[in-house]
Amino acid sequence: MTRLIIFILAICNTVVLNAQPTAFNNICLQGQQKRTYISFATRNEVNVRYYSIEASNDNKEFNIIGRLPATTNSMQPVQHEYDLSGHDYTYYRVGQLNMNGAISYSEVVKVTALPKDKQQELNNFPVSIPEFAEAK
Predict the structure, then answer these.
(1) Domains in the chain, start-ordered, CATH in brackets?
(2) Three-state SS across the chain?
């Protein structure tokens, strides 16, 4: 019986330590009450150190403009959001730094101009701004 319990614990530890990198879901830019946010979900956060919010104007060279902490070894989906106020870039992405030093990136999202009718809605504060980003 003791050998069986030790074997099960060894399997559980192996699964957690060798978990696959987090997959990003639903990364997008959103506007709410004259503010812009980048939001994304992860399937899990096993062995993730933190997320870097990165921005670019040419979609080639990205700068880190902020960081979000990861939930400690969560096997559950997690939703994140970062306020982009004060940042005027065209392209955004999220970088994930794992405990082993590996880095992976989300898809890039691009800020696009709002149609004129939506710009008029923005002048009638407060309103909820619809999503205004496209994935590249």
Answers:
(1) 20-135 (2.60.40.10)
(2) CHHHHHHHHHHHHHHHHCCCCCCEEEEEEEEECCEEEEEEEECCECCEEEEEEEEECCCCCCEEEEEEECCCCECCCEEEEEECCCCCCCEEEEEEEECCCCEEECCCEEECCCCHHHHHHHHCCCCECCCCEEEC
